[in-house]
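Write out this protein's structure.
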Amino acid sequence: MSINVHDNFLTPEEHQFVFNYCKNASYFYGESDNERQGEAFCTGLVHEVYFADDKIPEENTQVFGGGHSKTINPKKFYNIFVDKIEDKFPQMKKLDMYRMYVNCFAPSEQPYFHTDGSDDEYTFLYYPNMDWDVDRGGETQFFVDNTFYGVVPTPNRIVLFDASLLHKATSFRDRHRFTVAIKYGIAWHNSLILLDYLC
């Protein structure tokens, strides 16, 4: 089992930018945590930043919702994470960063356990929330050898884990929960896997 937790991952300014980006981004419904008996179960919402072999995102993209438009900067968002990850985890330079997206779960949602990929692939989860306390919930749960392990969503924390580990999100009690997911591995292989999990 490999679960590595790193705190104060971004500068305070980068952390604030990422949190604001997550709040202002547009999201879609239709991705499942897992597939059981041929049926996909969708939970949460997703904002796609980058998917295998896409162009690098551009700056200043307008998103619409709530009766007005907002401007986000996917290129800056993308660069912050790729630059910081490859600086702090140089072993990732040997792999493909094949997907980057934001998860959004509403209070009291009940996500499913799932795996992200195979033994030679890795997932980073970043917690952009600006505050947290123990009664709020929102940990990432791992199930390994019949034991639950939880990673607390401490603001500005990133966790790196083997994509083959069984895990799930938990929701916050009183607000939306955002996480930034960044996945490294073999791009073509994971592109095919992802298609199986779309509802």
